[in-house]
Amino acid sequence: MKESIAELVKKEAAQSKSEKADNLGSLLSMIEAGKIAYPFLRSGDLVKMAVNSPAPKVDPVTGYIDYPVFTKREDEKCMFGIARALDRLGSNINAMVLDKQRILMVIGPTGSGKSDIADIITEAVEKKAAEIGPFFYCLPKCLVRDNPLKLLGPKARQSFQDHYKIHIEGGLCPDCLETFGDQLHDSEHILDIPVETYQYSASLGIGITRLDAKDTKPLETESWKRINSIVLGASGGVLVISELQKVNSQYLDTTHDFFRGRRHKIGSKVYYPDCFIIALTTTKEWQNFQNPEDNIPLVERTGNVYIPYNTAISKEVEIYKKEIRPFFIEHPKQHLAPKLLEFLGEIAIRSRLKDESQYISGQFSKFAEKKKNITQENFNDSELRMLVKLSLYDGKQIAGFTQEDRRIIEEEGVKKYEALQSAANDTSGRIVAVISPPFMSGKLFTMLNDYAVEGETCLSPLKAARFFQELIDNTADDFLKCRPNLIAWMPTAKHRYETWLAEEVKSAFQLNFEESVKKTIDDYIEDIAIILDGKNPNKMKKNRVTGKLEPLNTKTAETLEDKIHGRTLAPADRSQFRFEVITGDEKTLPYFEAGVRKFVKEDGNKAEAVLIQFPPRQEEDEERYQEVLKKLMDPDRGEDRFCNICAQEALNKVSEIMREKKGIK
């Protein structure tokens, strides 16, 4: 049960009245009495605690360590499809804290989720601090919120290490040293030095701050005061530096200071804020950053994590669902046709993958053992290799490949910057853009809005394909840099969708065999009962399609009877057979049921011939079409459920495909 607002207010009010220390002496007494669990936390320890809560576990599908703080969220920041990167991210943070490194470089193309990762970490830090607080101690009016325990000498520090496992390192900041320096060796007054409390707050810039590119540009005379406030405000927590390279040269000097020793210079004073730094940069910017030799020592001091675009279709679908959720709040009656998001996801992800035949074909011998129809020659085809890669990355089982093989392929892909570049040169030297999740999500949102304005309530892959074809035809090359990828991979994705669509429609026509047998028997007995019923001289029956009473078509029952007997029955024989079926004759009934089964099987084989004709031309075909539509629109199909609009579109498209194959115009 969620905590009510009233309960939350009461709890916070109670925390604000908690016993507090007002000087170093009372702080030490409270620590000794066990009233303070965390009087002071190093920033790295706090980040580590935050990222590892809830506790991470090994994902059974990918084999990577799953960090729920990133992947088990119910908001728009939930991370999808980058399991390997998040595994490395969590491992890097844990290792960096042990090695006392506190500069994490998050590298990836635009739209890969770098900012979301930084936001998740800072939110987790603020939440974890609130859980273990409710407040922390610092020296009064200190810009970097210096730890009061730094006032203690070497022997007292060692005692804290021995008794409380609290490690105290470093000296006081320049301001505190000036203020309290004379009292450090004053045994009578050192315990009277006042202390203050603070709580982590991203909104107030206490312990969690973010330095954006706009903050680093000296557009006004007071800009450096703002920068100093942001940098020093992160002490004890996290400083996020976004767009590392998109700043002025003066600020780069400041970041260099951080990389060398996490120091910050203001005038003649040098401060050492205890902050964990998360720097965000693109792949290209990071490559440029490493080129000057002067930056090599800085690069070696960072923990680097590459964040690629998602490479799993099922995860791409989750990204799209997350992005378009606001649209469906405003348009709840709009419908997404089955496989639409998978169709768009396949186009996007194929643009991010690299076809490296030298490592994927190395697994061919295992693959060929199970797939005898796949030869080395056709496995060399890039299309087949790409389909194998798409399936493996999506966590699907492929005969001849293990999850360890997938990890090897993935590692090789990383070496080739797979899914890490927003643009790359193709063989002709042109710039070919990768289709990013934000790009495809944006186009999906555009399509949904356009069709909503036009009054259409369903968006299908066929409509999406037409949308992208118009985009390709009507957009300039220099603007639509993903044009080559759309041209190359949209037809393949469309073909795969149409193949799936044809199978779904055909299976809907060929209803469950036992279900069809039962329906045929029930319909026949109902028809015979009406024929033999003296109280219904007009032989009326409700039409399944229109719902109206209409004269019974006696030829339907006669056709079935003649098929069962293999000849046209004489009137007397027909009457006798009907009487025996209605009365449940022990010899006739099994013969009748066997005949119905044979009839249903033969009738099912006619589904293809009936499907080619769309719209239906005969009344009996119309009834069958309505049954097919009902089956396609069955709610039990879940996300593969068609609405009336996309079901009609599906029947029309499959009929068109079948006519093309038969050469029928």
Per the principal axes of the C-alpha atoms, what is the gross shape?
Answer: elongated
Please list the strands of the largest sheet in the order they lie side by side.
Answer: 6-7-10-3-11
End-to-end C-alpha gap: 63 Å
Largest sheet: 5 strands, parallel
Structural class by SSE content: alpha/beta
Q: Give the low-confidence spans.
A: 364-379
Radius of gyration: 36 Å
The average pLDDT score comes to 82
Helix content: 40-55%
User: What share of the residues does DSSP label as strand, in percent?
Assistant: 5-15%
User: Total helix count?
Assistant: 30
Number of strands: 17
Written overview of the protein:
This protein is of the alpha/beta class and 665 residues long. Helices cover 53% and strands 8% of the residues. It has a 5-stranded parallel sheet, with helices on both faces. A hairpin with a 6-residue loop joins strand 16 (540-542) and strand 17 (549-551). The longest helix is centred in the C-terminal third of the chain and has 27 residues, at 483-509. The two termini are 63 Å apart. The relative contact order is 0.07.
Summary tags:
8% strand, five-stranded parallel sheet, alpha/beta, 665 residues, two-stranded antiparallel sheet
Write the layout of secondary structure elements.
Layout: H1 5-16, H2 24-32, H3 43-51, E1 57-58, E2 65-66, H4 68-71, H5 83-98, E3 103-107, H6 114-132, E4 136-138, H7 154-164, H8 174-180, E5 196-198, E6 208-211, H9 213-216, H10 223-233, E7 238-241, H11 249-261, E8 264-266, E9 269-271, E10 276-281, H12 283-290, H13 296-300, E11 303-306, H14 313-330, E12 335-336, H15 340-350, H16 357-360, H17 364-370, H18 376-379, H19 382-393, H20 403-415, E13 423-425, E14 431-433, H21 437-453, E15 458-459, H22 461-474, H23 483-509, H24 513-532, E16 540-542, E17 549-551, H25 554-565, H26 571-582, H27 588-604, H28 607-612, H29 619-632, H30 644-662
Parallel strand pairs: 3-10, 3-11, 6-7, 7-10, 12-15
Antiparallel strand pairs: 1-2, 4-5, 8-9, 13-14, 16-17
Helix pairs in contact: 3-5, 3-6, 14-15, 14-21, 15-23, 22-23, 23-29, 23-30, 24-25, 24-27, 25-27
